[in-house]
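Per reviewer request, we include the raw input and output of the structure prediction for the construct analysed in the revised manuscript.
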Amino acid sequence: MKNYVIQISMADADAFAMEYFNRIGGLNREGEKYRRMLKQGMEIKERIKDKLDLKAVISFFQGNVISGNTAELDGVKFECNAFQRLNPAHVKGIYAYILTAGTLELGDEEPILDQLYADIWGTAYIDAGLEVLKKYIKRFSLNSDDPAGQTEPKAKLSLLDSFGPGFYGMGVDQVSKFFELLNGEAIGVVARSSSLMLPLKSCAGFFVVVDDDTELPASDCKSCRAEYKNCAFCQAVIKTNIDEDRTILEESK
């Protein structure tokens, strides 16, 4: 399976996106203020809903493709210290993906709070898209002996959580490598030389298939084995950015 395009159902993604939106915005609390903020947020969702277009392009690379901190997929090498937590003998393959939620940004002339709500919705739908994509891949592949989804059941297979550039010490400069493997243009995504993906609400990464009880390390600084240069992209900083967005929402009221 190479460059398989998946259109992700909005019906499948909506419940996840709502949960993430409330969590990121800190709106899952009682009180008139939070109800008013949620109402504003839902109004922005209505404005951008026609722009939402959750799509992914994925490819499966079968077999033991990991050695130390390196995964080599069709000659393209990815480095991440989290790979060292995996037992190569139990890695059955890797799904590489690029996923986008579409172009959701509001214009600069829009009120800053409206722009922020739109941005939070975009992040929420990216996270929701990953949840749904993982479920799709599980249905497609893990109920068979062959991870590509062909023959008899093999219950031991499992799919690890998604990760990619910016997580577990994988540098964001590796974004461009996904475009060597995958046809991002098939879903309208391109990569700039700065490792920026357009549309902005896009991401790339892996789902690793294993046949043991391997788990990735917790996505926080304590278990990160990356060099210091990557710490700006770790989960702790993402959490800080989310907290800052939440503070803006609070102060706006």
